[in-house]
Amino acid sequence: MPDYLSVADFKAERRIEHSEEDARISRLLDSAEQRIGDPENGILRRPVIRQEFSENFDSFEDVELAHPDGATISGLTYESAGVSASVTATYTLEDGRLRLAYGETWPASVERVSVTYDAGWSAEDVPEALKDIGYFIAGQMYDNADTFDAERFRRVLAFMASGYRRAVI
Q1: Does residue 52 contact residue 118 with C-beta atoms inside 8 Å?
Q2: DSSP SS3 for 118
Q3: What contacts 58, CB < 8 A, 6 or more positions away?
Q4: Which of 30, 50, 64, 161 could hold 120 in an S-S bridge, CB 3.0 to 4.6 Å?
């Protein structure tokens, strides 16, 4: 079942008035969402729908979240001398990096830092441009399953996603 693409919207755009293919359309929309928003292998290389991530780092200075866009930290712990503790220092998150408030210090002798965070949009807040990409992908699979031009498809998607795609270095 798609999270942010709608069978009804897809059908309205294509002027489909019957319901015989609703299950197929739903599968195509779900597939399109996965192709767009898989944080590791999707077109955008970032999550679209809000989801939770956990990452470990060697120190607080090493923290650089893999998916910083719209990230909010729900858990920040560290391990020191085999004991795990929560962070009590006041910090902010800027571009996926932790920044201490003035006068605060990180705990000393840290062996590991664990960060749990959410990143992505709520289904209601997914930008219309990303929905357009999803409808385009599903439409291509719906209309052109037998005569699919993969190279043209890649070029159009690259153009459509250019403002949202996260560079992977």
Answers
A1: yes
A2: strand
A3: 110, 111, 112, 113
A4: 50
Q: What is the CB-side half-sphere exposure of residue 140 using CA atoms within 13 A?
A: 17
> What angle in degrees, to the nearest 10, is found between the helix axes of 128-143 and 7-14?
60
Q: What is the pLDDT along the chain (169 residues), one digit of tens a residue?
A: 899 999 999 999 999 999 999 999 999 999 999 999 898 888 898 899 999 999 999 999 999 999 998 899 999 999 988 889 998 878 999 989 999 999 998 888 899 999 999 999 999 999 999 999 999 999 988 888 777 777 888 888 888 888 888 766 5
Q: Rounded to the nearest 10 degrees, what angle do helices 128-143 and 150-161 cross at? A: 170
What is the bridge-based pairing of β-strands 91-94 and 83-86? unpaired
Torsion angle of C-alpha atoms 27, 14, 150, 33, degrees rounded to 10: -40
